[in-house]
Amino acid sequence: xxxxxxxxxxxxxxxxxxxxxxxxxxxxxxxxxxxxxxxxxxxxxxxxxxxxxxxxxxxxxxxxxxxxxxxxxxxxxxxxxxxxxxxxxxxxxxxxxxxxxxxxxxxxxxxxxxxxxxxxxxxxxxxxxxxxxxxxxxxxxxxxxxxxxxxxxxxxxxxxxxxxxxxxxxxxxxxxxxxxxxxxxxxxxxxxxxxxxxxxxxxxxxxxxxxxxxxxxxxxxxxxxxxxxxxxxxxxxxxxxxxxxxxxxxxxxxxxxxxxxxxxxxxxxxxxxxxxxxxxxxxxxxxxxxxxxxxxxxxxxxxxxxxxxxxxxxxxxxxxxxxxxxxxxxxxxxxxxxxxxxxxxxxxxxxxxxxxxxxxxxxxxxxxxxxxxxxxxxxxxxxxxxxxxxxxxxxxxxxxxxxxxxxxxxxxxxxxxxxxxxxxxxxxxxxxxxxxxxxxxxxxxxxxxxxxxxxxxxxxxxxxxxxxxxxxxxxxxxxxxxxxxxxxxxxxxxxxxxxxxxxxxxxxxxxxxxxxxxxxxxxxxxxxxxxxxxxxxxxxxxxxxxxxxxx
Length: 551
What we know:
The chain is built from 4 helices and 38 strands.
């Protein structure tokens, strides 16, 4: 009787809500401020909200409203999504539906993994919602559709094998009625790809490989009479952006494999370390831009493309902006994938600049010294740690959490390449970090000129949290030590902070409910680098924190 009553109560709660998220609602993300239906607050991935009920003058009155455990010790890297008063949360172990007003669990359903899976499971990007369904990936390469109302699994499609070196962490997107998902495994002698799926049936519509087969355009950038292309990397482990007007999805690709360039004959290795502009209905590639040809430093280009319409030399341009792992901040025309601007946003020593005429980096002697067998110190090891940046269209500035840590590596002795096994071809070691060392920054920068408005140093521990910008003149971000921060957009000064129970490795969202503005952040130490830096001083344990102004 109790179970029957509970089921009736939950279904009654849902009956009052409309559950069919339409393409129109996704395109118009932000017009209804009670919903957050997309990663980074919209298809354009700006991580920006015009909401200003919470602002610089009253931020000191921000207080926690509720906290909910999400029963996970492996890390909370995904931001929640919200529809009609219900919050959806995904992590490596569970999918949750939570009442936005109270933090009460409506339902939860476990992630079902294949027998014998031991890889740590994390999720980047939030729960993807469309037409009454939640779409999510599991670490063992399954795309799952879950009914939002009942948590029933509607379909489950396997698209790759763990034994072949593939695994999955990134959130899918839905563009023009197609679910698009990526894959990880760029260090495991794999060939990256994107898949397009029918959201209703789970039928695979297309597959776009990120490395061309012999005879396809771009195959000339791989050695002839070699199978290097078949295991050359190019993973797609972050989520894409989408321009509905151009009907183009923009998705970044990862490192070339191995890092040792000799098996690849020092060729460009397309389409690794690139952004691909593709048609969501067919997977057709319309154009591309390669950020780092012949990658030997593991500088993935998978970070989100921020889509913006800005003035360049007095003319309006449709652009995409990426804070690349290689240390340069790029502005690229999203109609044709042509480079407009590229400026260093962190310390860079592997290239002196990006040639705007050719779009290619002007290399220093680092690469020659590395190829000669010398151990080299490369700056940066990463510009950011695979977390969203924010763009405020009013200020025209990019806001980011950056890293100030080198990568130290040299060529490894040659060994047999085994498909599915790690084979980077290099030996690397961690740099020594002394107490008080500046290991990262909070940054505000003009993406076109490269001028930094402010740069706040972070000592001892870098940040693995993304940025959220708001119309209230605030930036929300977090620290590995667990603080959730509100910064003054104009100066970078910390105006407010709250200590959560674990590290903040995710990105905040903001929304309204019954006229009141809320801010929500996931807390929970996870991810390889965040854990490497903070596991000795921070506990694990995932939870969702929601804040509003005190009444």
